[in-house]
């Protein structure tokens, strides 16, 4: 129920959500890459690369902060740059014929 969510510490909730993002993003990336290998369509290759970058970017800041002791703002900047690069690659994959 929704009122139990307030009892969960934010850090644990964030770790769970980031883990789910990593798993779901990894599955999407895997299937896109699998489709690329089957068809050899360049657009699917770019699509899988883009989803991989977005997925990596969405979990990058926390990893840099927790494991490498990097400043959180620097980690968020690098995360945002990876997500931006991923979205640009995805947009390009939709443009490639």
Write out key terms for the chains shown:
single chain, about 100 residues, mainly alpha
Describe the protein's topology.
Blueprint: H1 2-5, H2 10-39, H3 42-68, H4 72-95
Helix pairs in contact: 2-3, 3-4
Task: Give a quick summary of the entry.
The chain has 97 residues and is mainly alpha-helical. It has helices at residues 2-5, 10-39, 42-68, 72-95. It has 4 helices and no strands.
What does this structure look like?
By secondary structure, this protein is an all-alpha fold. Helices cover 88% and strands 0% of the residues. The chain is built from 4 helices and no strands. It has helices at 2-5, 10-39, 42-68, 72-95. The longest helix has 30 residues, at 10-39. The chain starts with a helix and ends with a helix. The model has no long low-confidence stretch (mean pLDDT 88).
Instruction: Name the poorly predicted regions.
Output: none
Q: Beta-sheet strand percentage? A: under 5%
Question: From N to C, what is the helix and strand string?
Answer: HHHH
Mean pLDDT metric: 88
**Helical percent range?**
over 70%
Q: N- to C-terminal separation?
A: 47 Å
